[in-house]
Amino acid sequence: MSAPRLDIDRIIDDRRTRIIVCCGSGGVGKTTAAAAIGLRAAERGRQACVLTVDPARRLAQSMGLTSLDNIPRRVDGTRTESGGSLHAMMLDMKRTFDEIVEAHADPDRAAQILANPFYQSLSSSFAGTQEYMAMEKLGQLRHADEWDLIVVDTPPSRSALDFLDAPQRLGRFLDGRLIRLLTAPAKAGMAYMKVLNAGLAVVTGALTKVLGTQLLKDAQTFVTALDTMFGGFRERAEWTYRLLQAPGTAFLIVAAPEPDALREASYFVERLDEERMPLAGLVLNRVHTSPARLSAARSLAAAETLDMGDRPNGPVLPGYGDPDRPDRSISITVAALRTHAERMNLGKRERRLAEHFTSAHPAIPVAEVVAQPEDVHDLAGLRVIGEVLSQQAG
Question: What is the pLDDT of residues 184-195, one digit of tens each?
Fold first, then answer.
């Protein structure tokens, strides 16, 4: 079954498209695809910013930057004739958490929170912090309105969509029994303090035995500042969640023509559908094809014939071998024929896997990127990927 073709240029040229989210399993070239789309958008006139949540640093290297941090950096070498620009950044969840504190607390209070050991542990390693902060940073970039297109490169595998749960998970944390218990003294009126303190003394004593006196004190100091510190973070996360559902957002699933990667792609399709997120299509990366028309079977047969001694004079394939050493020429030709056969067979297996996916999801547009002869490591390589993607429509 033939899938509709994914038109990347139509997506990036549509000024109503403000966010593109690239998701997929690890090792499929998702970071490269996100960078290539951001570069092509910038060189077609968009003010683009690529935000990576992937801890790998390939994005910085491919864009010629020594490093990426929590501040968008301009990418030099971008062609700006169309008036566009390209910036890139990597999410620093600790720094983003600190920015929330600094933005929503007075300087003295912010300094107290930032120095709190419980906060330092939470902001660095609390489960789900990266997803919370990804939601926050995306919202910050969109609110800034400095870029008219934000391309998000998510973490590998299924955790790529964990940020969709950020508002609900944050709400469960803030509404949890322990948080309510620790914040109760600060929120209670004086009339209730004696009653509360009598009951809390028993619970606090038990917590002290488990956590230790200092840790419990740090936790209580921290949670009493939650309302100030988060400053409506839950509301902002929910706003960003609704933004991701809006028509101005396009989700792209990136996969390789491999069983595991395409199974993950199917999972993403189902999850995005459940969340009512706008899926634009699938980028099938590292596809193996051959321009030669010789079939794998005929190629192997020719290699077998040559290898068994039925050898004409001189090289069989133009451009291969050394005319002064016919045996060497034929050996090279045999190797080339077998390599061609392997590539044809690999392409056939990949085609079957792709057809299985498109049969299960016939309405999803697909763009294919042919496997490149070497890893993409600079803007020129990213530009080639963007051009390949642009040739899919029609």
Answer: 544 444 443 343
